[in-house]
Every structure is written in structure tokens, then in C-alpha cells.
Amino acid sequence: MAAAAVVGAVAGSQALDASSAAVRLGTEHVTWPGPPLPDGVTVEDGVVPEGVTVFDDGMPAVVNLDPELLAALRRAARAAADDGVGFTVNSGWRSPDYQDQLLREAVAEYGSAEEAARWVATADTSAHVSGDAVDLGPAEARSWLAENGARFGLCQIYGNEPWHYELRPGAADGGCPPMYADPTEDPRLNP
Prior knowledge:
With 191 residues, the protein is of the alpha+beta class. The protein has a single domain, classed as Muramoyl-pentapeptide Carboxypeptidase, domain 2 (2-Layer Sandwich). It has helices spanning 3-8, 60-63, 67-82, 96-110, 113-116, 139-148, 171-174; strands spanning 15-17, 20-25, 28-33, 88-91, 133-137, 154-156, 164-167. The strands form two sheets. It has a four-stranded antiparallel β-sheet. The longest helix has 16 residues, at 67-82. The radius of gyration is 16 Å and the shape is globular.
């Protein structure tokens, strides 16, 4: 199971029943299917309800992204829309508490911190916590980005995470750098 599945497995902020949760966002309630989130993790921590786009300025997971990354994502999303492809944000900026929760869940899922590190970084090293990474869907959007993302500076960083994109401004001229097989090969995560 990948990080997106871990993220997807923790959707909602207040259990209504076994199959749905509701989140209060401003004056609006968003309902999504799935199990409730662990206590204390909310939309304000970067949890993303289904259907959020890079244009949803009311979502902390979107607006707390690095401004240059967000601008590149929005340019790419407009170009993709011209090709009939829509982007959804599965995860963007995350609070350290949310990142820690995802890591604890990954350790429980994979049985060790070493195996979990292939999918989820620590809060101290996560590009999500710093606002420098976004996980996108659906599959059509990822395919479009694999073909067109470099011209916007958007690059897939890890071979095992086709949804995870970061900004590499030089990619517009020279293409994206080679991918790491997984986060354990990324020197930024292993200082």
C-alpha cells in the first residue's frame, strides 16, 4: 500500500458512522466517505477532502504550498484542462502533527520504520510539511504530468510514487532530473 493509500485511509475529522465523516471548513461542511481521522487531525492540518483542486484557496493543504509550486501547478492545471484533463489534490502541505500521524500509521502498516520510510518521511524532512510537494490524481492527471510536467517545472521525484510532484524550475529547459527509486535514496531525507 502506498502513501496515497495511507492518506486515503485516514479521511474525515469527526465520525458520523463507519462509512462517512464530516469536516467543517469555514461555514461549509464537506462530507467524504471513509474511516474517521485519528483524534486531533483536521483539515487545518492539511487533510484533503475528495475533489479538492489546485484552485481551492480555502484549503490549507493548497494555500500553504510554496507559492512558486502553487503557481506552476495552476499553470499546468489550466493547460491540462485544455486537453480535457483535471487535477485533484490528494495531499499537499501537511502540519508536522499530521505527518507524524501518517508516519506512525505507515510503521504499523509496514512493520518497521525502515520499510515505512520508503513511503512516508519524518516531519523534519518531509517536503509536504515544508509545502514543497503535492500528491496529485487521478491517473489521467499523472499521465498528463509525466508527459508535460517538465515544461512547468513539475517533476515526479520518486519512482514508487507516481502521484508525488515537486517543483524543479530547471526542468523547463533541461527536463526533470532522474528519479530516486523511493524516498530512502533521497539525500534530502538522509542528512
